[in-house]
Design goal:
Blueprint: H1 2-18, H2 22-43, E1 67-71, E2 74-78, H3 90-116, H4 121-143, H5 151-207, H6 234-239, H7 253-264, H8 290-360, H9 365-435, H10 440-482, H11 488-522, H12 526-543, H13 545-560, E3 568-571, E4 574-581, E5 585-589, E6 595-599, E7 606-608, E8 614-622, H14 628-644, H15 646-649, E9 657-664, E10 669-677, H16 682-700
Antiparallel strand pairs: 1-2, 3-4, 3-7, 4-5, 5-6, 8-10, 9-10
Helix pairs in contact: 2-10, 3-5, 4-5, 5-8, 8-9, 10-11, 14-16
Protein name: MscS Mechanosensitive ion channel
Main location: membrane
Subcellular location: Cell membrane
């Protein structure tokens, strides 16, 4: 048949190309081993050939990419700086810092004087509010006892209470603003003191008035500008306090020695994991060259300069943050001043309305003079509030100007930091290149020392694999000849399956053994590796017993050829067609399309309904009136004609077999016969055969009877007339014989 012919052609082509592909497989294996060897060498670079991860810049950094540094809680993005960025000289920085320090001192003094002033807005608002609060409570107390007052007095007191209540509301709002302004003044003093400390520290650094060592709790002062880094030496960078930047850290010589020791005892690929006392890779101890020592000194100096430049940028950024806080507080004071101006205007308008009301009501001259005096005070307070608003606006504009200057200084510091960072990165890349054991000279020398022995090991591995391939071919032929079950092609397929498993296992053993020998040759200790593998294997064996059992059962199933793909199985209560077989599980799909994943370790018994061949068994019921011999002959004729049909002939592998009468049922006689089919053809053949039998029975008038039941009624005794129930029909009575 076409499918079998195509399968045989594919198998023949595979067998013909097996030997031809052996050379290519060996070449691929050799290439893979060399790649693994180079990878292991890369993983075992000596620890002293790399700096700690948190003090190391990338070896190759693109100059067109943005460098992002975390500075405290703010992120400073070191973007490529254009050539038009203005460089700020030290003289300009000193002048600006001196002016900023003087302004900060003056403002702090003014704020403290305002807090201590007995005639400040807070004191005045407090006194006014307390006075009105006392009056309002007194009037409310009188109105709470109306029995002691005349009606006219109650009206006057209510009118006076309403007027005082309006003034009380304005005084309360004014006092609330004064309280909020006083709190803001305290915040301003704290922010200005912090800004003053940073500006003074920056001024000391720029002018060269550095203090000796700062305490551990003191925050970092301002750093030098970017263009003055060249004049600072490494001792200043080492003695400066930590500023919280992730990469701008300075180390003492003792800490460097400690870090070198820790780096020597840790894996360069997995920092933080201690290596065993005897390193797996024992590199030959060689004295560093003069070029490498000079490159290391240069890289160390460049790194210190880059860290110093980064601290400078961080200092400017911190000053901008402090200035932003001052601007925020000043804007808050400005908003409070504007509200205070509005309240003063409302008070003046209220006084004006009260004066007009008194004038119309015919008040005395003394009352009018008093209200005019209050009106003038309210107007003066309004004008003072407007002047304060203007002063606050000027102060905010001044702070914004300072911020613009600091932003220019920040851009210059960032540009300098980026330049120093690139120089440090270049120097570090040079050191890394000099330390690289894969340089051409080192590689050539290494291959001259170890290449011949490794070549002998690789040739031995290839020879063993070639011998294994010959043995596999011989084993397939032997199993195909001596096998007893199935056709020769099936036996060959079975043999190739088992040989493939054995070939993979043997190839793995050869590769592992050769790799261990190569490890020994290159200087990698095999004993620690084997010990670690044993520990891991033991842990896996204890923790995954069910998984190991599944794999073992799967191997046994494949070894015994219990079933294969497309077989119809019944495993426990699940029946379906095999869609996939692995060492881990068997996948079945039932007739409804449901997929069942069954672990091989849970398979106790298997019923293979398509192993080699199948049988379509039919039970045909006919009526008792039919000629059974004639019916049996008709059934055999229908089955024989179907076997001769070209459409179904290839699925039927034997003549039909009549078994005879299976049972004498209540309604019909059951005739059983069977027909032998190929696997997976039982159900299609059975359905088609039933269809043909039904059509043939209809042509010949043979009836397949329905189920019948005969019920006989019998009465053993005659009912007495006394037991008759009126309205019911009694059964017939039997007569007594004489």
């Amino acid at each position: 048949m076409p499918l079998d012919l195509h399968r045989k052609e594919v198998i023949a082509m595979t067998s013909h190309d097996a030997h031809r592909s052996l050379g290519f497989t060996s070449l691929k294996t050799c290439t893979l081993l060399v790649a693994c060897f180079l990878l292991l060498l890369a993983m075992q670079v000596p620890a002293q050939a790399a700096e700690p991860a948190d003090h190391e810049q990338p070896a190759s950094t693109s100059k067109n990419e943005s460098t992002e540094e975390q500075v405290g809680e703010r992120t400073t993005v070191l973007k490529p700086v254009a050539e038009e960025v203005e460089t700020i000289s030290a003289a300009e920085q000193i002048t600006r810092l001196q002016r900023a320090v003087q302004n900060d001192n003056d403002q702090i003094s003014e704020l403290r004087e305002e807090l201590a002033d007995p005639m400040s807005e807070y004191k005045i608002a407090e006194a006014e509010f307390q006075q009105l609060e006392t009056k309002l409570q007194a009037i409310s107390a009188q109105l709470n006892d109306p029995m002691k007052l005349a009606p006219d007095e109650i009206t006057v007191l209510q009118t006076e209470r309403d007027e005082i209540a309006e003034k009380h509301k304005l005084a309360r709002d004014r006092f609330d603003l004064a309280i909020e302004s006083r709190r803001t003044i305290h915040d301003q003093i704290a922010a200005l003191e912090e800004k003053l400390r940073q500006d003074q520290a920056a001024l000391d650094r720029v002018s060269g008035n550095l203090q000796p060592a700062a305490s551990a709790t003191t925050k970092p002062a301002g750093e030098m500008p970017a263009d003055s880094l060249a004049s600072s030496d490494a001792a200043d960078a080492a003695n400066s306090p930590e500023n919280g930047s992730p990469k701008a850290t300075s180390e003492s010589p003792a800490s460097e020695k400690t870090s070198d020791k820790s780096a020597a005892s840790q894996s360069p690929m997995l920092p933080g994991i201690d290596l065993p006392a005897t390193p797996i890779f024992q590199a030959p101890a060689k004295a560093p060259s003069k070029e490498l020592l000079a490159a290391e000194d240069e890289a160390k100096l460049r790194k210190e300069l880059a860290e110093q430049a980064e601290r400078d940028a961080k200092s400017v950024t911190d000053r901008i943050v402090s200035l932003d806080k001052s601007i925020e507080l000043e804007n808050k004071q400005l908003a409070a001043s504007r509200k205070r101006s509005d309240l003063a205007y409302q008070s003046a308008q209220a006084m004006e309305r009260e004066k007009e009301k008194l004038r119309i009501g015919g008040a005395s001259e003394e009352q009018l003079a008093a209200i005019r005096e209050q009106r003038e005070k309210a107007e003066a307070h309004f004008q003072a509030a407007r002047a304060e608003v203007a002063e606050r606006i000027d102060r905010v504009n001044q702070l914004q100007s300072q911020r613009a200057l600091l932003q220019r200084e920040e851009l210059a510091a960032i540009a300098e930091a980026k330049l120093k960072l690139e120089e440090a990165t270049t120097a570090e890349a040079n050191v890394t290149n000099l330390r690289n054991p894969f340089s051409p000279h080192n590689l050539i020398q290494w291959f001259l020392d170890h290449g011949p022995k490794i070549g002998v090991i690789l040739i031995s591995m290839l020879a063993l694999r070639w011998f294994l391939s010959l043995a596999n071919h011989r084993f397939v032929q032997m199993m195909a000849i001596r096998g007893a079950r199935g056709t020769q092609q099936e036996r060959e397929d079975r043999a190739r399956t088992l040989v493939g498993v054995f070939h993979n296992a043997a190839s793995g053993a050869i590769v592992v053994s050769g790799t261990l020998m190569i490890f020994e040759e290159v200087g990698i200790a095999v004993a620690p590796l084997m010990g670690g593998a044993a520990v891991v294997g033991l842990a896996v064996a204890f923790g995954a017993q069910n998984l190991i059992r599944d794999y073992f059962y799967g191997f046994v199933i494949l070894l015994e050829n219990q079933y294969k793909l497309n077989d119809v199985l019944k495993i426990g209560d699940i029946a379906g067609q095999v869609e996939q077989i692995t060492l881990r599980m068997t996948v079945l799909r039932d007739i409804e399309g449901n997929v069942h994943f069954i672990p091989n370790g849970k398979i106790d018994s298997v019923t293979n309904m398509t192993h080699g061949w199948s049988r379509a068994v039919l039970d045909v019921p006919v009526a008792y009136d039919e000629d059974i011999d004639r019916v049996m002959q008709i059934l055999m004729d229908v089955a024989t004609l179907m076997r001769r049909d070209p459409e179904y002939a290839w699925q039927i592998i034997d003549d039909p077999e009549m078994l005879g009468i299976e049972a004498l049922g209540d309604s019909a006689v059951a005739v059983k016969f069977l027909i032998k089919t190929r696997p997976l053809s039982k159900h299609p053949i059975r359905r088609e055969l039933l269809r043909r039998i039904k059509r043939k029975f209809d042509e010949l008038g043979i009836i397949i009877p329905f189920q019948q039941r005969v019920v006989h009624h019998r009465y053993d005794e005659m009912l007495d007339s006394e037991s008759d129930v009126p309205g019911l029909l009694a059964p017939p009575r039997s007569k007594k014989r004489a």
